[in-house]
């Protein structure tokens, strides 16, 4: 049947549609609206993973938890997994109360950015309130500098333990980055965390045990000895001698490598264990930290010299030394005046230096190698010393003492002849030693002043005009 040709059917369909629509409207109007749950309750608030009590003043409750956190400890984790605990209040931590109150109000307000961000993340999880702590940089840096002193360690090259005749492995060095660690602590505090990773720079050793697997040290290629005083007055100087020698003993110098005395021995200061003992300064003997180190460098120079090593850098003293011949001394001052030599051989060499029984002995060890080394020295000029009188109230008037014995100055020419079978090499150089002023102390104090004044007990300095060793 064609609906288009039946008006009655069209009218019937329209009436049905009207009745259905009217029924739906009436049903919607008659049925009650769905229940309104109201605003969602705020999430559980936390400070440093501890729930904030909901009753009473929520801001005050949060402040109590922040105070508890601020007085606790934070662990600084080191690269080896160990940790050092520091109290947060020792770092100068302060609470920004105004900012904390703002954070709490934001957490309680449904339409706040803090709440919306939390709901997008996980609306059923607790909401961790940011901890607004202010770090006192000066106090924190002071604490971290103390930690740096404790933790910093230089890299240690692999070396030969000559007493045990064993190869000792290398050690990695560490250097604490104070400002990098401070930034990490600040971030950890703001996040309410109990640990922060220390920012530490690792220092790789230059020489590792794998490089020394075939080191031989059964032969003495060259040696040299000097003597030192062993009396009670020389106790501090002897201590410095042993300390400096210990830094050299067992050091391996690879083929072609340049040995650097200042780099190997390090600073001669109180922080590195050195004591006050006589040193030469501008031609005079005065007390100074690390006195005696030059005897260690001079003795090592003698051993390196007679082992046929290549001397790269060496300086004479500003006055002759009683413990070593003119031309064979080697003065060092950290970090400006250095002593360096190069290993010219195709095999590693091992340094051995000992201090015992009034004798400093240095040896250059390696495999057997027969070299003949001869040292020649000629004094070209002798320069007379001057005499100076210095008044001092520490002596009674009329008293005269020899405070410093004068030593003539010298200009010398030295040479070394190194023979390897029929092959020989000669080197030549000049040294200049200024004269050392003779100083007489003249008393200007009260005549009844009682003091024990002693003359300089060094003997008159003499040197051979021509020397062959």
Automatic annotation (TrEMBL):
SMART domains: G5 (SM01208). The chain crosses the membrane at residues 12-31. Keywords: Membrane, Signal, Transmembrane, Transmembrane helix. This is G5 domain-containing protein. It comes from the Bacteria. The keyword Transit peptide does not apply. InterPro entries: G5_dom, Glycopeptide_resist_protein, Vancomycin_resist_VanW. It comes from Sorangium cellulosum (Polyangium cellulosum). Residues 368-446 form the G5 domain. The keyword Ligase does not apply.
